[in-house]
Design a protein that fits this description.
Length: 215
């Protein structure tokens, strides 16, 4: 039998004795120096090292290192979590309150934009720097007085963009206040309170009727 010079064929007895020799080498290492014993993994032990029967007994030919790790892209189910808070019924119709600091910042920014436009216009016309400062200060004071007189100007929801959430919330509150005043609804009115009062009156009449029957 002729074989390629780059390959050798191991005799059958050597294949049979190889696991036994590995076991003897391992036992000798453990006996001589247990803390620094060699870690020799036999095929049977490799299967036991797999995690929950997931993995390979040997990484040879798999194109991987054989290291088993959890799937980081797996999302855990959250069925146990409540989709809404327990008091959802009490807050579902609550209006979103705007941030007063953000509204104040936007009002000041609107004033400064107009002042900057005036300054840019006067600089293009070649007006003296002191005169520009005086006119800008006068315009700033005028706009601030107008906002103070109108209470901030009350944003109009039709002219607002979708990203202006605080301005939209303020406009919605102003609209609700106007509607409440027009209908004569009190500020402490709660949704469904009218039906609750009717139900209370009905229960009171039933209790009076029951007391009359007993008498």
């Amino acid at each position: 039998m002729t074989l390629s010079p780059t390959f050798t064929c191991q005799p059958e007895p050597f294949r049979t004795l190889l696991p036994m020799r590995l076991e003897l080498v391992r036992e000798s290492a453990l006996h001589l120096n247990p803390p620094q014993a060699l870690s020799i993994v036999l095929p049977e032990e490799a299967k036991a090292q797999m995690s929950s029967n997931v993995g390979l007994s040997t990484p040879r030919g798999s194109g991987t290192s054989g290291y088993v790790q959890r799937n980081l892209s797996h999302l855990k189910p959250r069925d146990s979590a409540q989709p809404y808070p327990k008091d959802y019924d009490t807050i579902k119709n609550r209006q979103r309150q705007p941030d007063k600091e953000i509204l104040e910042h936007d009002r000041k920014r609107e004033i400064e934009v107009k002042v900057f436009e005036l300054r840019d216009k006067l600089e293009d016309e070649g007006v003296d720097e002191d005169e520009i400062d005086d006119q800008c200060d006068a315009l700033r004071k005028k706009l601030e007085a107008e906002q103070a007189r109108t209470g901030g100007g009350g944003p109009n929801a039709k002219n607002l963009k979708s990203h202006q959430v605080h301005e939209l919330a303020k406009a919605k509150i102003d609209e609700s206040e106007k509607l409440r005043s027009a209908l004569g609804i009190s500020k402490d009115y709660e949704e469904g309170s009218h039906w609750k009062k009717q139900e209370e009156r009905k229960l009171e009449r039933e209790r009076e009727r029951a007391r009359g029957d007993k008498d």
